[in-house]
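Possible regression after last week's pipeline update?

I re-ran a chain I had predicted before the update to compare outputs. Posting the input and the new output here so someone can diff against the archived version. Not blocking, just want to make sure nothing changed silently.
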Amino acid sequence: MPLSPVKAVIGLANPGNEYAETRHNAGAWFVELLARRAGATLRPERKFNGDYAKINVDGQDVHLLIPSTYMNHSGKAVAPLVQFFKLSPDALLVAHDELDIAPGTARFKFSGGHGGHNGLRDIIAALGNSRDFHRLRVGIGHPGEASKVVNYVLGRPGKGERIAIDHAIDAAADELPLALSGDWERAMQRLHSQTF
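New output (post-update):
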């Protein structure tokens, strides 16, 4: 596993109030938490097609971005950010909802496919088919049947489910300084030992 320090965290989402509290926006909830913890405000930035802020974590500048594109066009926000700041794919951490993990669990991962996630699919394409970026997989659980997935991810989690997701996001944010420093193994061990 590469030990590249992460320089940008992207939280995947669909835009608009109607989607803000839906499961598909769990990646954005992580970035919003990072901004709140740093006392920063995410503001619309046209050149990145999203809401952007720069924060400092343990002396390291980190770019935060929530694309304002729809999920399946996330690459249209990530590509300009990468080009403007001259970032390599492995300097990115993309936070996204994950059907294959239960609510209350979050996992760091490096590289891999898109697993059917349209946001990841578009980012991989926008990065010249590079899969070599870091991910934070925020568990939202699975409805049990493939035919129910679309309505499920675009639905709101129940109260207990949302609390569990928020606890997992908090835990991931606690481990972020380790990940940002390049100590991914330790960050993964600590985060992956926790379930809420």
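Follow-up from reviewer: compared with the archived run. DSSP finds six helices and seven strands in the chain. Marking as no regression found.
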